[in-house]
Design a protein that fits this description.
- It is a single chain.
- By secondary structure, the protein is an alpha/beta fold.
- The protein folds into 4 domains: about 30-235, 3-Layer(aba) Sandwich (Rossmann fold), CATH 3.40.50.1110; about 245-540, TIM Barrel (Alpha-Beta Barrel), CATH 3.20.20.80; about 555-640, Immunoglobulin-like, CATH 2.60.40.10; about 650-754, Sandwich (Immunoglobulin-like).
- About 25% of the residues lie in helices and about 25% in strands.
- The protein contains 20 helices and 38 strands.
- The chain has an 8-stranded parallel beta barrel with strand order 10-11-12-13-14-15-16-17, surrounded by 5 helices.
- Helix 2 (about 50-60) crosses helix 9 (about 215-235), helix 12 (about 340-350) packs parallel to helix 15 and helix 15 (about 380-390) runs parallel beside helix 16 (about 415-425).
- The longest helix has 19 residues, at about 165-185.
- It is globular.
- It is an enzyme of class 3 (hydrolase).
- Keywords: Carbohydrate metabolism, Glycosidase, Hydrolase, Polysaccharide degradation, Signal.
Length: about 750
């Protein structure tokens, strides 16, 4: 819903792109060998490689072998981390010292991912000289394997404190890379250019102006490598699952047609109004479109909250259309998000979305462009890119694309270019959404728009409409009658909570289902309205009341107990429709006390934190289904937290200084050499040379006061069995010399040196 219908001028939208210079050959029958070649951005710790490997595994691409002479640094989980990411190395230095042939001989890669040149730029080496080094490296790759596929990055931006000119030097290098790639690409040995520069922010995505951080930086890098690597592998995109497009129709996974009949709910502004889901369902709706925030204007709505929203939808037997509202009116509305930013948000909450394809539609961004025609003209490219980014991230849901020009497409940009966007979706699983307000005030205009999509054979829904608006009087009777006659979905705006200038679009007064407005009465109870035409999705049983509770879940098993937390796992429940989640209940002490809900989980595991040391707790779990039925409680599990404590330990410390600057990368290995497990640990050491840790590091939570540094375990590596080890590390800065710490303690006990 647009709050204002304005016209303004705006700057153009910068779009990230990935240019493939030559087609990829078919995948080999044996695992494809992939080498990541670069400097510390690639190797120290280079956890984008861990994310990339996991992404491939999660999407079924398991026949890939990451190769290199360097082992995997710790990134929080086990992964295939062999690489050639050498901290401080220059492209020109690798050529000068003839180092690549030896690496190639040892690893024999089929595909090379190369992000290289940062240290050359830092050392003020001209772009032309760096590209000459690229040419030599490419020749060495082809000498080792004439069919080498090179995926070369336009490197991420840099803004180190000691190099004001580095940012522009990166731009100059990146501007020259595409022409270099095109000149050297061949059919037998193609070169792909991946744009890692666009959309990467040194302030938000690095900790030191150079190296990607672990919160957003490595995720952005991985998301750009993934589609290019898939193309080089020659893999097929996994088919759509769950709700999906069939011609002009939307079908459920089982093949039953699904016609949306729903209500918009302004969740991001009214997150406590969760009764609205049940109230909307009470009028017979089969869909709710839920307003979320991506962080540019509202929110961001975190993954845990998205999981809760999906649970509310499923509990009330509603298909959940999730939309990001921050994109509204981009190019005209100040502060509005781009579709690329919206795509980044969806990828950031992918953990809440995956596995929900039967129940969830991802609406890329609400009304993603205002009325500026020059900006709206980029709708096709921006929407296609957003779709492809979500697919590359493994999101296989039905996607919904809103029209530009405040959603009303009054210049027919979406109408005329929808086929291009549809074909850009490798799963061909995108439905288009038109918002019908004052532009659609006659039956002729409404029918003409509907006819265009029917003629094109493309799916369409009316994602928003009302019975009046400041920009004109929409013909809601024709919208609803024609949608019913043609089998088109519609979702009315909105349940409640509109601002006073458009308060007439509220269907209820103050979210009260007993207080319908004129619009609510017309939409919910009138001709061709919700009560008359809505049919529940068959995934919920097709309208048959579900009174069967899930089976009792298994008694929880306790693991990973520390002084402040414990992890529970249990055997799954079953249900005639489907289990939607579990409640976890806790009581204090070995006996007595009252059980109370301490959390919920959509999976069969839960980690409880914030517990007192040396204390006993009891746990039970119960399952719940989409109809709100709950199972009986499981058996009781008991957990006693530890007191922490020290133990024998060995620490290995190594640091490599960066070329062209005063930075360094430190890697630390901690080994429990004692005879009992460590449950929670804190490593402490002191820098004598004025070195400073650049947060956040990896494998631990680092803190520094003066020269004293502490590193505290993360949730996944807090328990160290006897002889077990964990790797942690950080980037840092120094002045003059960079001596190693003289001693290390673990939980107060002095460790031996490795």
């Amino acid at each position: 819903m647009n709050w204002r219908f304005l016209r303004a001028l705006v700057a153009g939208l910068l779009l990230a792109a990935c240019a493939v210079v030559a087609p990829a050959a078919a995948r080999a029958a044996v695992p494809t060998r992939v080498m990541a070649l670069g400097d510390s951005i690639t190797g120290s710790p280079g956890c984008w490689r861990a994310l990339l490997w996991k992404h491939l595994q999660d999407t079924g691409h398991t026949d890939v072998d990451f190769v290199g002479t360097l082992p995997a640094p710790g990134c929080g989980f086990t992964y295939d981390g062999d690489n050639e990411g050498h901290g401080g190395f220059l492209a020109t230095g690798i050529v000068r010292d003839n180092q690549l042939p030896g690496w190639l001989s040892a690893s024999r890669p089929d595909i090379v991912l190369m992000h290289l040149g940062t240290n050359d730029v830092w050392s003020n080496i001209p772009a032309s000289t760096i590209l000459d080094a690229y040419t030599t490296l490419l020749g060495q790759m082809r000498a080792a394997n004439p069919a080498t596929k090179l995926i070369v990055a336009k490197i991420i931006p840099m803004n180190p404190a000691n190099c004001a000119a580095c940012g522009q030097r990166v731009v100059e290098l990146n501007n020259a890379i595409p022409a270099w790639a095109q000149a050297h690409s061949t059919a037998a040995s193609p070169i792909t250019v991946v744009d890692q520069w666009t959309g990467f922010d040194t302030a938000a995505d690095t900790g030191d102006g150079v190296h990607p951080n672990s919160t957003t930086g490595i995720q952005k890098i991985e998301s750009r490598w993934y589609p290019a690597l898939l193309a080089a592998l020659g893999t097929d995109t996994p088919a759509a699952t769950g709700l999906h497009v069939d011609g002009t129709r939307v079908l459920e996974a089982g093949g039953s047609p699904f016609v949306m009949r729903g209500v918009n709910h302004a969740y991001v502004w009214y997150p406590s109004q969760n009764r609205a889901f049940a109230d909307i369902k009470s009028f017979g709706a089969n869909t709710v479109r839920v307003v979320l925030g991506s962080g540019q204007r509202w929110g961001p709505t975190p993954a845990a909250e998205v999981t809760s929203v999906i649970g509310q939808c499923k509990q009330n037997r509603l298909i959940c259309v999730l939309e990001v509202h921050d994109t509204t009116g981009y190019g005209e509305q100040s502060g509005a998000a781009t579709l690329d930013q919206a795509a980044s948000y969806w990828i950031s909450v992918a953990s809440a979305l995956k596995g929900q394809e039967d129940y969830v539609v991802i609406n890329l961004g609400n009304e993603p462009f205002g009325n500026d025609q020059q900006v709206s003209a980029t709708w096709t490219t921006a929407t296609s890119n957003a779709v492809q980014r979500l697919r590359a991230a493994g999101l296989r849901h039905l996607l919904m694309a809103d029209a530009p020009m405040w959603g009303q497409d009054w210049q027919n940009i979406m109408r005329d270019n929808a086929a291009t966007v549809f074909n850009a979706d490798p799963q061909h699983n995108t439905v288009f959404s038109i918002h019908m307000y004052g532009v659609y005030d006659t039956a002729a205009e409404i029918n003409a728009y509907f006819d265009a999509f029917r003629t094109a054979g493309l799916p369409l829904v009316v994602g928003e409409f009302g019975n009046m608006h400041t920009d004109g009087n929409p013909d809601e009777d024709t919208i609803m009658a024609q949608a019913q006659a043609r089998g088109l979905g519609y979702i009315g705006w909105s349940w409640s909570g509109n601002s006073s200038d458009v308060g007439y679009l509220d269907m209820t007064n103050n979210f009260d289902p007993a207080g319908l407005t004129a619009w609510g009465e017309r939409f919910l109870n009138g001709a061709n309205g919700i009560r008359q035409t809505s049919k529940e999705a068959t995934i919920f049983g097709g309208g048959q009341a579900d009174t069967q509770a899930p089976s009792v879940p298994g008694t929880p098993a306790v693991s990973g107990v520390t002084s402040g937390g414990a992890t529970l796992t249990w055997a799954a429940s079953t249900d005639n429709v489907g289990v939607t989640g579990y409640d976890v209940l806790r009581a204090p002490g070995a006996s007595g006390g009252t059980f109370a809900v301490v959390g919920s989980s959509a999976t069969t595991s839960f980690t409880d934190s914030g517990l007192a040391a040396s204390s006993t707790y009891r746990y039970q779990v119960r399952a719940k289904d989409a109809a709100g039925n709950t199972s009986a409680l499981s058996g009781v599990a008991t957990a006693t937290t530890s007191a922490g404590g020290g133990g024998a330990c060995k620490v290995t410390y190594s640091a490599s200084n960066w070329g062209g600057g005063n930075g360094f990368t430190a890697n630390i290995t901690i080994v429990n050499t004692g005879t009992s497990a460590l449950n929670g640990w804190t490593l402490a050491f002191t820098f004598a040379g004025g070195q400073q840790v650049t947060p956040p590091g990896w494998g631990a939570g680092f803190a520094q006061s003066g020269g004293a540094v502490t590193a505290k375990n993360l949730s996944w590596n807090g328990t160290l069995a006897p002889n077990a080890s964990t790797g942690i590390g950080f980037n840092g800065t120094y002045s003059g010399s960079n001596p190693a710490p003289a001693a290390f303690t673990l939980n107060g006990s002095t460790c031996s040196a490795g």
